[in-house]
Amino acid sequence: MRIFVSTGEVSGDLHASHLIKALLDKDPTLEIQGLGGQRMASLGIPLLADTTTLSSIGLVEAIPFIVPTLRIQAKLKSFLKNFRPDLVILIDYIGSNVKVGKIARQLGIPVVYYIAPQEWVWSTFQKDTSAIVAFTDLILAIFPEEARYYQKFGAKVEWIGHPLTDIVHAKMSRSAFRAHMETPESAPVVVLAPASRNQELRYLMPVLFETARNIKAQIPNVQFWLALSTAKFKSAVETAAQAYGLQAKFIPKSQTYDALAAADLLLTKSGTINLEAALLGLPQVVAYRVDPKTFLIGKLLKFKIPFMSPVNLVEMRKIVPEFLQDEASAENLTQVSLELLQNPEVAAKMRFEYTQIRKGLGEEGAISRGAEAILSVLNVLPARR
Q1: Is 244 found in the same domain as 146?
Q2: More exposed terminus of the chain, fewer Cβ within 10 Å: N or C?
């Protein structure tokens, strides 16, 4: 049986790689190809294109990626006709995957959406919801609210829980990792994770680094560790850190979870790393900025979101502080960061809230449950001639 997996962004590539491993463990005869990134490629999965470099958030930010995306889509239809998969699996990445889903439906190929777009958050664009429901045979939801939302619109949905509950585990103790990083046990440590998209290097990284500089002025013995989503950002991040006078140490990519478990605060963007930190009990401050023109267009369209951090989306309530656009100022970020670093009760309260939302992420085994559901779809398909 043949499967085509379509995703983009660093986080999508992460989830795709773990799902593919689970599928192949259960059925080594599967033939899998797709759109994705280096994690998928490292499993030996042939890729039609690397889509992790084409992700963006915002209208203006997406412009540079329109032509490359259209080129991939132009190749995709003929590729799917020739490869003729028995099933297409879509993972997040709404900008391109809605088009992929429509192409699959036109070709009569069943579609499973694993980690569906957060349409219950971006409810301004319900036309995408209708399209997703129309071309999808099964949605494997990772949030309870996600499951309820798509069921309301008539989709066949199975809530499997969040895959990160299977993935996120520290291998080293706090003291062992700090010794590995040559960081004193008594020193407060702030992890800086400024970007997983090119646009974030421009719009968000400067305010995060300015905040770090402010923290250093108030807490002289603070230490900074830098987390990279991709090695291609290392030069830009290193140059920016030097410009802000930050003496920061890069975390080995394979030890990101050890670092989050050994630190005292995460200063970061909105994204998968928010949930990773929550699962490891690390207090955090979240910020996001887009191109001012994108933000203005959003205001004119009356576009609103209740929350942007995945942690706050689990139960649709504020657990971690988040700041968007003009509110994402160094002054605001510094104030809440210092409070979390200097007031143990505030940090303890956030850690307690993490334990409360943990049940909303489901029991461990989400990836295996997702793979079983996908194989169940494959098993009822007519045998390939």
Answers
A1: no
A2: C
